[in-house]
Hints:
Structural class: mainly alpha
Oligomer: single chain
Order of helices and strands: HHHHHHEEH
Amino acid sequence: MAGTLAESFERLWRVYETPSGKKIVRYTMVSVVSTIVSLGVLGIVFGLVHLWSEVPSAIFANAVATVPSYYLNRRWAWGKAGRSHMVKEVLPFWLASFAGLALSTWAAALARDFSNSHHLHHFGHTVIVLGANLAAYGVLWVGKFLLFEQIFRHRPVVETPGEADIVRIATSEATIAGAAQVFVSDQPEVASVGGQIAVEGASVAEVGELERDAEVTFLERLDHGL
């Protein structure tokens, strides 16, 4: 028995050590936190204070729990930093939360009808409402995880060269081109006359080939020097 438990714990630990395992565990912990917040607020506004009826109390409790759920999931479970994107992150998250809110509201309405039909005391009524809200959370757990996996996924940032980078690249290319020209002019086969290359007894195509060979040789020497 002890060996089986140890093996099970070891397998669970190996799963937890993977990035997906840590994400699922953290998502579960955030779900527990948001559930506690929601049930706590619902128990206060409906069970203790009698501030609203079942449905408004459930709406308010879920809305309050959505705020810490968003930041904990985004920053801790999925490890995403920086500013939130309103359309790609905030809006889908709140839509999912409102979908959960609708399910929770429906569950609260069912709990109210059940309690009224069985003439339950207020304490029993409160327990039924809390249980219905908890069941609604469980149904949405998997769907929300799949959604958060999409909206909080890390996407590689493609950096475009800035003005300073463009100037540095252009300067480097100009330096290499100038050094290559000096190297070409130093070759015994090639002479620079009036800014044009002239080679005795060579055609224009041969001159171009000599230039290319000289530049390649220069770049090879420059590479070896670096």
